[in-house]
Amino acid sequence: MMNKDKQISSIAIKQISLLVIILVLAGLICSNLALFIPSVLGAITIYVVCRKYNFYLQEERKWKPSLAAFALMLASLIVLILPIYFIADLIIDKLGNAQEYMAKFNVFLDKIHGYIYSKTSFDILSQDNMNKLKSSVGKFSTSAVSGTFNTLTVIMSMYFILYFMLEKPRLFERILTTSAPLKRSNVSLLGEKLRKLIMANAIGIPVVAIGQGIVSLIGYLIFGAPGAVLLFALTAAASVIPVVGTAIVYVPVCIFMIAEGNTAQGIGLAIYCVVVVGLTDNLLRFTLLKKLENIHPLNTVFGIIMGMNLFGFMGLIFGPILISFTLLLIQVYRNEFSDEETPPDLELPENKDLKNKLI
Asked: What are the TM regions of this chain, as residue ranges (predicted)?
């Protein structure tokens, strides 16, 4: 006869059964509505950015909820979505004629390879690697064009979901708070950390990208770089890549200009980009991003890779958020179920104040 102490209690069986049912239903919902996952993530992102202004308009200015929601949706479209979509659409438009683009890109690549080989006798790109690079760029341009409709669909459904979040924000937040199977302190902690992560990614990354893109565009126009507008879009997109960043765009352009015989302009552009564009990058990252949230570069790298695979261009923002949020959930799990002392960066502000008073 089994010892009663070793028997699984009926309460534990009910909890496990209910958890299994919830996970199965959640899996069914996510698998069948996977198309709308980027829309939901986008709606939550914009909601967090607009949350303070939404409460101000509705509760202090006494605006009608629907009017406040539409006003904030329009503002977010102009400030957040249109600049990102403009850059993406500009790249897609320029790469739209794949055959003509690839012909120009092949000439561009061959010119750089030939110049470096003639000066250094170093075969930086073997013929096999050059063919692979050309093939990869061709596939990217084709997929970018085909993804235009999907991006528009995501944006439309995102704003449809966002409207109901903004119209009744207290109800939306109460549903999330009561549904979370965590202590109230951990729910507050999770919300605060998530807010900082979203602000850093939704505000910080686009501002840094557009800022570097504009500064580099000025240099491209001054030194006569070919296709300055396209290079502006590519530089802005490349700025989200840590370590390499914008150099992945302007270095080949400078080499190409020198190979074409425009030595002074090529060297001048290289100096401009290293000094001015690099200074702009450091200035924005160490002022704006440090104030919002300090995100580890590896989070950004792997987040962008994952996000682009899952969500396309929108993944530039959602990918790093998902990586950071997953790590945050692991920390919250330890805080919820571990007896260890809570790490200082995970303590709530009121708990820190209390500890300081006791000391």
From this structure: 12-29, 35-55, 67-88, 144-166, 198-223, 229-259, 266-284, 304-330
